[in-house]
Design goal:
By secondary structure, the protein is mainly beta. It contains 3 helices and 31 strands. Helix content is about 10%, strand content about 30%.
């Protein structure tokens, strides 16, 4: 039934085991009531006297155009009042178009129904809303009896003493639900209690500290759980709002145990308050403003920034092989805690780098270098200082090792600009001159002494 109307076998097709997970499918094929309503006010696809349809596959023979209460007629040419022309793929991006002789009166409703060749298929459940049906929201009701059992995944809440007991009871006496729907009845059957496996058989856990924008650390506990052959689900709880999931996704492996990157995926974070379809894909949590939970000084009024973590898997590192101990772990994350400056260094490009005790290096400042048109025209001030002068020209200041500027040699001493050979020669000459002068004085002294010893 489609909206209560019984469909004949010519209006649908039945496919065995062609749906998701091997479910049977029903495809509705002859419904021709996909429709749009446009108000003739220059918006919603109305451009002057033409309308862009949402599809490029409209069957023109099924078009029905109603402007206000007047049904328009499709013609091939020579438009007149109450008529329209259909143009195949004439709109932007190849969509079909409708032309009128004159633009409809502002405020008129334009109702357009058509068939675009698509069928709407659904896996058979008790009730299913056909989102892809020509009219969104139509409900397909299938009365059937499943002939073979099908395995389903059931997630059981974790109690204080481990997973809660889960018992399945066949429905043999409930004839109606509170919603008004009629359930299927089993012929007979006794309750069956599910056997819950030890989590260590299908689950692997590990933890990693991550950091917010203020340097506070947060422990993320990752849980990887095998849900079927070669398929695992991973998730981590929100460290702030512990009743929420911060991030989750699927890890798939190929038959030989290698990571299947094409089919694995990271889902939108349930902790992101944005609407579905626009949430962050990865790990998301919002650190609190309370300093007692951030283990440090009170943060600014806005608190730490929202923490968003992209999740990547090492394509060659993560595998699914038979071994007793798993080595899956977080091998790298680019967050870091607060650090204290312990050392300062300068590189050849003049960048002053601070080294911190959290193993992070940060650029603190930049040393500039000046060049002059005539360096010899600089005015000497002593102690290796020079001043700009009219002869030197104006300085051209920039980063070292760019535009013919020299590099900086950190940790090096400047070589002496003295000619040591010439200085040694001059020192020897001075020493010999001093010795010669000393001997002259000694000779004169002796002469004077001898003169004084002479007697008349």
């Amino acid at each position: 039934l489609v909206n209560g109307d019984v469909q004949s076998p010519t209006d649908y097709t039945f496919s065995n085991n062609t749906g998701v997970g091997g479910l049977d499918q029903v495809c509705i094929k002859n419904i021709k009531n996909r429709g749009i309503r446009i108000v003739a006010d220059g918006t919603m696809g109305v451009l002057a006297n033409r309308i862009n349809l949402p599809s490029g596959n409209v069957d023109p023979d099924t078009l029905r155009v109603l402007v206000g209460v007047t049904q328009y007629t499709r013609v091939g040419a020579d438009l007149g009042t109450g008529e329209f022309i259909f143009v195949d793929n004439g709109g932007p991006g190849g969509v079909d178009q409708i032309y009128f002789s004159t633009a409809p009166t502002a405020g008129d409703n334009i109702d357009i129904t058509y068939y675009d060749g698509n069928t709407a298929c659904a896996e058979i459940f008790a009730n299913y809303t056909l989102e892809s049906n020509p009219t969104s929201g139509q409900e397909l009701t299938a009365d059937y009896r499943r002939t073979t059992a099908r395995t389903v995944d059931v997630f059981i809440p974790n109690g204080n003493e481990g997973p809660e007991t889960l018992t399945f009871t066949p429905n043999i006496n409930v004839t109606s639900y509170e919603s008004g729907e009629t359930p299927n009845l089993a012929d007979s059957g006794a309750p069956v209690t599910a056997m819950v496996k030890d989590p260590s058989v299908y689950q692997y856990q590990f933890g990693e500290s991550v950091f917010d924008s203020l340097g506070s650390d947060w422990m993320l506990r990752f849980i990887c759980e095998r849900i079927e052959e070669n398929k695992w689900i991973w998730f981590t709880t929100n460290p702030v709002e512990t009743d929420k999931i911060a991030g989750y996704g699927l890890i798939l492996f190929k038959g030989e145990g290698q990571y299947d990157a094409d089919n694995s995926q990271v889902f939108e974070s349930p902790s992101d308050p944005a609407g579905a379809g626009s949430r962050f894909k990865g790990i998301y949590f919002n650190p609190p403003e309370n300093p007692s939970t951030t283990h440090g000084a009170p943060p600014p009024e806005e608190g730490a920034e929202v923490t968003k973590i992209d999740v990547y898997f090492n394509k060659s590192g993560i595998t699914q092989f038979s071994q007793h101990v798993s080595n899956a772990d977080v091998y790298y994350q680019n967050g870091y805690g607060m650090g204290n400056l312990k050392e300062v260094k300068i590189n050849e490009q003049g960048v002053i780098i601070g080294k911190y005790d959290n193993n992070k290096d940060l650029d603190l400042a930049q040393i500039a270098v000046a060049t002059f048109v005539n360096p010899s025209g600089l005015e000497k001030k002593g102690d290796t200082y020079f001043l700009e002068s009219s002869n030197s020209g104006e300085p051209d200041i920039g980063i070292p090792d760019t535009e013919k500027r020299g590099i900086i040699r950190p940790g090096n001493l400047e070589m002496s600009n003295v000619d040591l050979t010439q200085e040694f020669i001059d020192m020897i000459i001075a020493e010999r001159a001093f010795m010669a002068n000393s001997r002259t004085i000694t000779t004169a002294d002796r002469l004077l002494l001898d003169l004084m010893r002479l007697r008349p």
